[in-house]
Amino acid sequence: MSAGCVDFLCDLWAATLAKHDDKPPFADHKDLYRVIDSTPLGEVKWQSITCTYEGEKPDVNAPPWMNDVYDVWYRDPREVIRNMLANPDYKNEMDYIPYREYNAKNDDKREWKDFMSGDWAWRQADEIAKDPSTHGATFIPVILGSDKTTVSVGTGHTEYYPLYVSVGNVHNNVWRAHRDAIAIIGFLAIPKSKSYHIFEYSVL
What range defines the domain where residue 172 resides? Predict the structure, then answer.
């Protein structure tokens, strides 16, 4: 909904409450956005920063995205991951150490199931264990991902790629069940440019 429509709706709402000597919870779209932005989601609040391109630019006809300022919305990844690890729902569906599993009924062939059953996790744990100060610690592989899904935030004028985070300790069935083992921690602004700009700079 556009900012103008939000303002119109707030005015209508205020008109219906005036006879009761009352007023709506939001004065206008700015008031609504302020409340939304200050609302914590999943116990970790959203924050924003701005960023710009700082690489080399052509002397003439620089594409607009090189000069634009972009908003990046994010939640503290450490806090989101801490909440995942503290979730009691995962108590019996999380691996705290890497492991290797073999099938005794099939010539002791190696089996892979969850992330921590892989060789990479095993090698990382071996490397970490070389430091005596880490003995007794748990290896937490952090997995980041994004996709081509575009979403609009706030006014709807800017499109973003969502950035997801998870940890390799939870079992695959938890991921598939969408039980908050995958969380959105950011929205990456998509620079808008003409196709020929994209082609030109991909060639360079």
Answer: 46-87+141-204
> Letter for the amino acid at 180?
D
Are 187 and 159 spatial neighbours (Cβ–Cβ below 8 Å)? no
Angle (CA) 172-177-182 rounded to 5° is 75
User: Residues 47-101: pLDDT tens digits?
Assistant: 888 888 888 888 888 888 888 888 888 999 999 999 889 888 888 899 999 999 8
CA angle 128, 131, 135 (to 5 degrees): 75
Strands 69-74 and 101-103: unpaired
Residue 199 and residue 159 share a domain = yes
Tokens 């008031």 found at: 31
Do 120 and 162 sit in the same domain of this protein? no
**pTM score:** 0.64
Amino acid at 80: V
Among 3-7, 94-98, 114-118, 191-195, the range scoring the smallest mean pLDDT is 191-195
Same domain, 71 and 158: yes
Residues 29, 32: Cα–Cα separation, whole Å: 5
